[in-house]
Amino acid sequence: MVESKHKWKAWLYLSPAIVLLLIFTVWPIINTLRMAMLEGYNGTAELGGAAFNFGIGNFVKVVQYAKFLTCLKNTLLLCVLTVPLSTVIALLIAVCLNSIKPLQRLLQTIFFLPYVTNSIAIGMVFATMFNIIGNNIGGENQLITTAGVINNFIGLFGVDPINWINAGSAYWANITVLVIYIVWDALPFKILIFLGGLQSINKQYYDAAKIDSTPKIRVFTRITLPLLSPMVAYAVITAFIGGFKEYSSIVGIFGEKMGPAGDQFRLNTMVGFIYDSLASNQQGLASAAALILFCIIFAVTMVNLYVSKKNTHY
Amino acid sequence: MKVELRNLTKIFPSRNKKSNDVVVAVNDFTFTIPDGKLIGLLGPSGCGKSTTLYMISGLQKPTGGQIFFGDDDVTELSAENRGIGLVFQNYALYPHMTVRQNIMFPLQNLKGVDKLTKQEMLDRAENAAKLVQIDELMDRKPSELSGGQQQRVAIARALVKMPKVLLLDEPLSNLDARLRLQTREEIRRIQKETGITTIFVTHDQEEAMSISDIIVVMKLGVVQQIGAPQEVYDSPINLFVAKFLGTPPINVFKGRVEGEKLYIGGTAVLDTPGVKDRAVTVGIRPEGFILDANGPLECNLSGVEVMGRDVSVVSTHGESLNPTVRSIINSDNKVEAAATVRYSLKSNKVFLFDTETEERILF
Predict the structure, then answer these.
(1) Distance between alpha carbon B309 and the CA centroid of its chain, in Å?
(2) Looking at residue B350, what is its pLDDT?
(3) What fold does the segment set A59-311 form as a domain?
(4) I want to staple B156 with a disulfide (CB 3.0 to 4.6 A). Which of A290, B128, B222, B342 is the partner?
(5) A207–B59: do the CB atoms touch at under 8 Å?
């Protein structure tokens, strides 16, 4: 316990962090609440001396907005599809990586690369791969147009080229590309924590299981998975939170118009909606949407924690 | 089930790729373990006793030699097909399962004709738990048990599938002194009740001697001596075995034999008929000393430790290779406070060893 006459020293040393937190974290949160509760709030108008009524008008407006409902639907769909998929795939890769000895380090590095690569850049590469029109320089400096890498690849199996992301593409095709991209992007972090978890499991459990002639599948379901459950719970919770904030992947592939040409903003998400509202000087709407997003994430995380508490063995 | 080891050898490759030094963990171990006996593999750390156990279990593959269970060569058989039970040093109980689930786990793996119904499994688990007296703890998790209770669960899990051979790796090393004493008797009782051939590894000579039918003393991968505990104690084959067995440890002196008499320092202390004149290393068990005012061996008295039944006399001697000479004598004898103490010796508690090879010289 610090003596009271020295307390000011403690506060002094803490003050840089506290001041920064107050300015850039606490005040924005309070201000978001304030802006959300002022009907039709607009920053420029407020500077011009306008006054706003206190009320829940912003929330009502957001919820009634068709664009917002599209965003909510897209966000939920991507979460529900990508979180289980990336978790299961990461788990399989981690278990396989853990069971091989040669090249383990190299493969670990390769699987980790997406994590350190810019997601917009990866998005653009994906956009090119899934493009229906790929560019290819032929003979005599002639520009020959061919289908993109992915369409070429599925063509090997006799599948006709699919319009993945270009004008006139189907919604399910767009979502498929996004799911592949998001899952691929989410793998490294999950593989890393699963591998860490797997390597911290005492080898003796596996020796004991071997002595008792346990089949491999049962070793996985009865020993590996339960002992890994804290990591799985952590991965799922953080993946859901990340999933609800999905934005840059869509910008990476479809550009900032958030959709294929001719059907813009079809793939917009909650965070995209917030950004758009801010850009169009509707801070009240953006704040309300941000608070709604916060409440959804909070509720989902609570459910996650409740479910994982029942099924996790620490 | 008798277990036979033939020229069993395990060589670990060098960690450093450039050097060619290899570690010979077990060197040419040949021994037949009779059916239904309790065998103690004994030696200091790094002597290859655990490696031997893991080779018998199948978790490690021998570099050379063969292992037979009964008449079947199991050398190439992997651990899952050997039908053994193994109790790990740290028990390796599955932390997320209850005691009952842990014990039932091996039974749920049985296939084909051996497959059991749920009720049979529960009954067998219950019986195994009763055998080790933990049937009241069936619904607890391992983390809610004491070390001794976890140990019993581990034994029950190993026994429940009725293995042909039970292997225990340092089973008592994680227990406190009192529990260790109790548990080793327990292991003996369970082994007798089940009649399963049991092999256990320990570095504690007292533990090995107290419960084993046969002890195997190892050093640096080489078997030194195999025999009944008392026999090995009374007749150690070399200085290492003599030093390793017994608490307090044996007293070692520099000495020489001249005219069939053993000299320690300048005085003849014992007749050694049939031994040629030579320098020797002398081992004297603590209980081999007799307090005798006219005895030939004179030591400088440093102190007396009372242990109730016995007293332990601590002294020093110029020719002793240990820092102190420790004797155990009956507490009826009064040790007088004086500068020196004199002993005569019991000839069956005195061993002579070659100074070079450390092999025993019989007389």
Answers:
(1) 26
(2) 93
(3) MetI-like fold (1.10.3720)
(4) B128
(5) yes
